[in-house]
Design a protein that fits this description.
The complex is a heterodimer of chains A (about 350) and B (about 120). By secondary structure, chain A is an alpha/beta fold. Chain A contains 14 helices and eight strands. In chain A, strand 4, helix 5 and strand 5 form a beta-alpha-beta unit. With about 120 residues, chain B is mostly beta strands. Helix content of chain B is about 0%, strand content about 50%. The chains are: A alpha/beta (about 350), B mainly beta (about 120). At the A-B interface, helix 9 of A face strand 5 of B.
C-alpha cells in the first residue's frame, strides 16, 4: 500500500549553510554571526531534546540535517511513497528586518532545493516565505513555484498573526495562481491565548489552540470564498478538536451571517471540502474513538497521515493509525487523502514498483 | 376551521413585530414590504424563545471582504436569544444547514377582513 508522510522536517546543520544562497549584506550578516538564529524560549524535556533520541549520526551526535539518516530511519524504513518536507526554519519569526527575513526565506528555499529535494524523488517541498512582507512573499512564491516539487506554501503559526487578515491577500493570490496548497505549522513562537504557559507540557498542550484561530480567521475573513481553488492543510496540531471548531463556527454563522456575508457556505462545509489535518500527534485513542471523531467531522476525507520526523512525538504509521480501522478509511488517512490534496496520481504505481 | 381576529391592520407595519394570541398560543405578526401580512408562531423553532422580543431585519450581501449591502429589510425575523435569522418569505433559516434538524417558522393562514387581521386555524 502507498504511504504519504505529510510532515517531515528537514533542516540545515548550521545557519552558515545558507551563506552561499545569500546576497550581501545578508550574506555577511550570517557569515560573521551577526544573527545567531531563532532560540527556543523553553527547555525540551524529552530524552532527545525535542527530537527522537535515536536521530544520531554515525559519530553519535544528534543530527536533523542528514539525508542519509532520514532515508534510513524514515523513508526506507517505512517505504514512504512520498515525504512532504515542511521545514523547521521559518523566517516569519523575525519581527523586524523584513528584507533580511525575506532573503533568508529565499536562501532556505534554494538550500532545500539543492540539498534535499534533489536527493530523493520521494520528496515534495514547501515554499518558505516571510509572511510579514506579503508582497515580497508573493514574489518568492512566484519564483519557487517553478520548482516541480514545490507543492505548497508554508505559513508558520507565530504569536501575533492570524492569516485571515486582509494584508495577507497577496500570499493567497500567489498560491492560488501557482496552483499551490497552503499549509500551516506551529513554531517555537506559537502560543495559546495566555502565552505558552509555565511548563513545556503546557506549551505543547496549547499547540492545537494556536492552530484553531487560523482556521477561524481564514473562514470568517473570506479566504475560502475569495480563493476558491485554494486548499488548506493544518500540520502537527492533531485533529480531535476539529468537530468542535466546525460546530462552533456553524453556530456563530447562524447568528452572525449578517456581519460576514462574503462567507457563502457553512464553515463546516468549507472545512470538509478544502481543509485537511495531519493526524500527528495522535492521542492513543481507540479505533471506536477514531471512528466517532471521523463521524463527527462528517467525512473521512479530512485526515492525512504524518510522522513529524525527526521530532520526539513521532507517529509510527504501523502503530499510530490503528490497523483495526475500516480498510477504506485507513487507506484514505495513510495515502489517498494526501494524494488527492497534492495531486499525486502515481502513488499506486510507485508503491507497486517499490514492492518489486 | 376556526377564525380568530388577532389585531387591526393599522397595528401592523413593515419592520415591526406585533404580538397577539390565538387562545393560549402566542403569535407574532408583521407586514412584509410586498404588503402581505405574515403571522408566525410565537416561539422560535430553535430553542423556544419568545419571538415577540425579536426583531424584523434584513440580510446582507457581499462578494468582497469588508464590503456589504443591506437588503431585504422587513423580510427577516431574528430570534431574541441566539440571533438566528429566519426568512419571513418561506419560514426557513437564512443560513441553510442540511446537517441539522430542520427548523422552520410556523406560518398561519391570515387574511384582512374589514380592517381586522383574521387567522384561520
Amino acid at each position: 500500500m502507498p504511504l504519504i508522510d505529510t510532515d517531515v522536517h528537514e533542516s540545515f546543520s548550521s545557519l552558515k549553510d545558507l551563506v552561499p544562497y545569500l546576497q550581501e549584506p545578508y550574506r555577511g550578516w550570517i557569515a560573521t554571526g551577526a544573527w545567531r538564529g531563532f532560540s527556543q524560549p523553553f527547555a525540551y524535556t524529552s530524552p532527545g531534546l525535542g527530537n527522537r533520541a535515536d536521530v544520531r549520526s554515525a559519530d553519535g551526535s544528534a543530527s536533523v540535517s542528514d539525508y542519509s539518516l532520514m532515508r534510513g530511519q524514515l523513508i526506507d524504513e517505512y517505504d514512504l511513497t512520498y515525504a512532504v518536507l515542511t521545514g523547521y526554519f521559518y523566517p516569519t519569526g523575525l519581527k523586524l528586518q523584513y528584507g533580511f527575513a525575506t532573503a533568508l526565506a529565499a536562501a532556505y528555499n534554494d538550500y532545500v532545493a539543492e540539498h534535499w529535494l534533489s536527493k530523493d524523488d520521494r520528496f515534495l517541498g514547501s515554499i518558505q516565505i516571510n509572511a510579514r512582507d506579503p508582497e515580497a512573499a508573493a514574489r518568492e512564491i512566484d519564483r519557487m513555484a517553478a520548482h516541480p516539487k514545490m507543492r505548497q506554501v508554508m505559513l508558520p503559526v507565530v504569536d501575533d498573526i492570524a492569516y485571515g487578515h486582509p494584508m495577507f491577500k497577496p500570499i493567497f493570490a500567489a498560491a492560488e495562481r501557482n496552483r499551490l496548497n497552503v499549509a500551516f505549522h506551529h513554531t517555537t513562537f506559537a502560543q495559546g491565548p495566555y502565552g505558552m504557559g509555565l511548563h513545556y507540557m503546557e506549551r505543547h498542550c496549547l499547540i492545537p489552540i494556536s492552530l484553531m484561530p487560523q482556521i477561524i480567521s481564514l473562514v470568517c475573513n473570506g479566504v475560502f470564498d475569495a480563493y476558491p481553488n485554494l486548499r488548506f492543510m493544518i500540520l502537527e496540531g492533531g485533529f480531535s478538536w476539529l468537530p468542535h471548531v466546525m460546530w462552533r463556527m456553524d453556530r456563530e454563522y447562524r447568528q452572525g451571517r449578517i456581519e460576514v456575508p462574503w462567507l457563502k457556505k457553512l464553515p463546516s462545509q468549507h472545512c470538509r471540502e478544502r481543509l485537511r489535518l495531519s493526524t500527528q500527534p495522535t492521542e492513543d485513542i481507540s479505533t471506536d474513538e477514531w471512528m466517532k471523531l471521523i463521524d463527527l467531522m462528517g467525512t473521512d476525507d479530512i485526515l492525512v497521515f504524518s510522522t513529524d520526523y525527526p521530532h520526539f512525538d513521532f507517529d509510527d504509521p504501523n502503530a499510530a493509525i490503528p490497523k483495526s480501522l475500516p480498510s477504506t478509511t485507513r487507506e484514505k488517512i495513510l495515502w489517498r487523502n494526501a494524494a488527492a490534496f497534492y495531486e499525486l496520481s502515481d502513488c499506486k504505481t510507485r508503491a507497486s514498483e517499490a514492492a518489486i | 376551521m376556526a377564525k380568530h381576529v388577532v389585531c387591526k391592520l393599522e397595528e401592523l407595519d413593515v419592520g415591526k413585530i406585533t404580538s397577539a394570541r390565538i387562545g393560549r398560543s402566542p403569535i407574532i405578526l408583521s407586514k412584509l414590504p410586498s404588503g402581505e401580512i405574515r403571522a408566525v408562531g410565537g416561539r422560535c423553532p430553535h430553542q423556544g424563545a419568545d419571538l415577540s422580543y425579536g426583531c424584523i431585519s434584513g440580510t446582507t450581501a457581499s462578494d468582497r471582504l469588508n464590503e456589504m449591502t443591506f437588503c431585504n429589510f422587513g423580510e427577516t425575523l431574528r430570534c431574541p436569544w441566539h440571533g438566528f435569522s429566519f426568512s419571513l418569505i418561506d419560514g426557513l433559516p437564512v443560513v441553510k444547514d442540511a446537517t441539522q434538524m430542520p427548523m422552520k417558522l410556523r406560518f398561519y393562514d391570515v387574511k384582512v377582513e374589514g380592517g381586522d387581521v383574521v387567522i384561520t386555524t
